[in-house]
Amino acid sequence: MSASNLPKKELFELPEGVIYLDGNSLGCLPKGVVDRASETIEREWGGQLIRAWNSADWISLPRRVGDRIARLVGAAEGSIATGDTLSIKVYQAVAAALKMRPGRKVVLSDSGNFPTDLYMVRGLLQTLDGGHELRTPEPEQVADSIDESVAAVLLTQVDYRTGRTHDMAEITRRAHEAGAVMIWDLAHSAGALPVDLAGCGTEFAVGCTYKYLNGGPGAPAFIYVRPDIVSGVEPALAGWMGHDAPFAMELFYRPAMSTERLRVGTPPIVQLAILDEALNVWEGVRLEDIRKASIELSELFIAEVERRCPQLTLASPRDAGKRGSQVSFAFENGYAAMQALIDRGVIGDFRAPNIMRFGLTPLYLDNGDIMSAAEVIEEVISEELYRDPKYNVRSRVT
Fold first, then answer.
1. What whole-number distance in Å separates Cα of residue 311 and Cα of residue 329?
2. 193 and 145 in a common domain
3. Residues 104, 150 contacting (CB under 8 angstroms)
4. What reaction is this protein's catalytic activity (predicted)?
5. How many Å apart are CA 186 and CA 160, to the nearest integer?
């Protein structure tokens, strides 16, 4: 791999005999995380009890972690709040955007967006009961669908099924030309490719940290607000921790004078500590190097799988510049084939109706991993090992 400081396998707990191609769904466990979690639980919580909010500085941990994420997504210090879940952050961003454009009734997304984003928007619009509408054109039609009726545009930069990318700068420009508020979901972007939130001028961005940022299952989400508009953002969820002075115990909400106003409940300290430790693997890593290595890995993977397995159809864009850090193939027996792969130590995942997804994470993958994975995929497909009945039993998580 051309990036001299990649991969960083020595920084991760990688199971023997496993090639992990699912970092786009759940990242690997970084070394040091278990010790940090134990310290937070045993020494801080166990030894200091409630005093740890001050003595271990738990109270500022959400902000400190937010600033570390900011450096990975091209945002200024103080512009990212952490905590809660991605669904909650989507709700907050869309609700705030609608208040910023009270005369408009349309939220624009696309038909390929992650379902929970659309669920949250529909739930919000039903609650508002103000005649609002969610429009979901095909991804390729989004830019031309932005007009003066649109209050907010909500898009996931990298499609969760295929890895297809939206042009963040261009669509943000189109949204602003039409007077709409822009919201980006970075679930499959943060830690996978360079992002320039400040440069593109988007009002809001949201994201999760358990994928490419390796924060662990249920890791806290984050929300970005452009600094020049934050004082005018009205939180739909006015939580205690978003108050300007939480311990003044005032009866009425007075929002913090920063992005902290979009914090809601008590921060998940153990999970934030884990995420804080996990972010250490990014020290000295440039996102440009990550992107270059990701493209090299994905191009090799596509070439090898297509050469060995003509039964699979590339579902991701052929152009690497229009693809995130994952490669997807369509296959009629995709679910069973993925179970057979996992049984042989090559871990990807499946998304209905027929998509086999493979995440390419240069922090802990190299060319040798890709070649070995391609060999196993060839074995499973060419020998039709997926026809074993045990691989057709559907689990709740695919």
1. 10
2. yes
3. yes
4. 3-hydroxy-L-kynurenine + H2O = 3-hydroxyanthranilate + L-alanine + H(+); L-kynurenine + H2O = anthranilate + L-alanine + H(+)
5. 11
Residues linked to residue 206 through DSSP beta bridges, in sequence order: 185, 223
My answer on whether 73 and 213 are in the same domain is yes
Peptide bond into 353 cis (omega under 30): yes
- Amino acid identity of residue 161, one-letter, is R
Residue in the block written with tokens 């103000």: 130
Backbone φ and ψ of 106, nearest 5°: -115, 130
Helices 287-308, 367-382: axis angle to 10 degrees equals: 30
| Per-residue pLDDT tens digits for 313-333 | 999 999 999 999 999 999 999
d(Cα 177, Cα 141) in Å, to the nearest integer?
A: 17
Q: Which residues pair with 13 in a beta bridge?
A: 29
> What global pTM score does this model have?
0.96
CA-based nearest residue to 135, from 153, 159, 123: 153
CATH code for the domain in which residue 156 is found = 3.40.640.10
In whole angstroms, give the CA distance from residue 311 to residue 57: 55
Angstrom distance (rounded) from CA 315 to CA 313: 6
| Selection from 118, 122, 68, 89 nearest residue 208 by Cα | 89
Residue 309 inside a domain? The answer is yes
User: In this structure, are residues 153 and 180 in contact, taking their beta carbons and an 8 Å threshold?
Assistant: yes
Domain residue limits at 47: 33-282
pLDDT in tens, 338-348: 999 999 999 99
The number of angstroms, rounded, from the C-alpha of 208 to the middle of its chain's C-alpha atoms is 4
Active-site positions read: 114, 185, 210-211, 357
* Domain total in the chain: 2
d(CA 119, CA 42): 39
